[in-house]
Amino acid sequence: MNIFDKNLTEWTLFLDRDGVINRQIKGDYVRNLSQLEFLSGSIDAAARLSKRFGRVIVITNQRGVARGLMSLQDVENIHKFICEEVEKAGGRIEKVYFCPHDYSDNCNCRKPATGMIDQAKADFPEIDLNKCLMVGDSKLDMELAINAGIRSVFIGADSPNGEPVFPSLAEFADELDK
Q1: Catalytic residue status for 16
Q2: CATH class label, 3-177
Q3: What is d(CA 76, CA 2) in angstroms, rounded to the nearest whole number?
Q4: Strand order in 151-155's β-sheet?
Q5: What is the pLDDT of residues 66-76, one digit of tens each?
Q6: Per-10-residue mean pLDDT, the chain, length 178
């Protein structure tokens, strides 16, 4: 079953944030709006994808909160700004879920655990896991997709588990627009 041959209007698209929508700061975190740098074409791509998919949801680990490097308000400000920019481009992000916990907190929301997808399903009961796609740039994102039983697309050079690979979110959206 090839996702690219499907009508995706009944599908939910889960997007990772750092490394997919915005530049990931290696060894650090995007702590505030001044550090937020969108990846080339990512806002336009998210807007285009929101017209193809029935629902677009961002799910992201934000361990920097637990480490005291940024506040919950800082993270919420970043997410509000991302949603506003996608909306300005003509798209929408229904909701952003994030895990503020550290590895040792043993929570059920930190990827690759499925807590953020479970919460999305609770908030949007019509989500059908058979019609979901996770787009991420890390092994944790791909493991989350496996754990949730959903399809995945890898953004980067080499997929960990043989998922379809695209160099960027923009190139993934371009492929769907063909």
Answers
A1: yes
A2: alpha beta
A3: 35
A4: 95-99, 55-61, 12-15, 132-136, 151-155, 165-166
A5: 999 999 999 99
A6: 72 98 95 97 98 97 96 98 98 98 95 98 97 97 97 92 94 92
Whole-angstrom distance, CA of residue 149 vs CA of residue 120: 15
Neighbouring CB atoms inside 10 A of 140's CB total 16
Among candidate residues 18, 44, 74, 137, the one labeled active-site is 18
Active site residue 44: no
For residue 1, the model assigns a pLDDT of 39
Report the 3 state secondary structure along the chain.
CCHHHCCCCCCEEEECCECCCECCCCCCCCCCHHHCCECCCHHHHHHHHHHHCCEEEEEEECCCCCCCCCCHHHHHHHHHHHHHHHHHCCCCCCEEEEECCCHHHCCCCCCCCCHHHHHHHHHCCCCCHHHEEEEECCHHHHHHHHHHCCEEEEECCCCCCCCCEECCHHHHHHHHHC
Phi, psi dihedral angles at 151 (to 5 degrees): -75, 165
Domain boundaries, the chain: 3-177
Q: Of residues 5, 16, 118, 141, which has the active-site annotation?
A: 16
Q: One-letter amino acid identity for 104?
A: S
Q: Could you report the per-residue pLDDT of 30-50, keeping only the tens digit for each?
A: 999 999 999 999 999 999 999
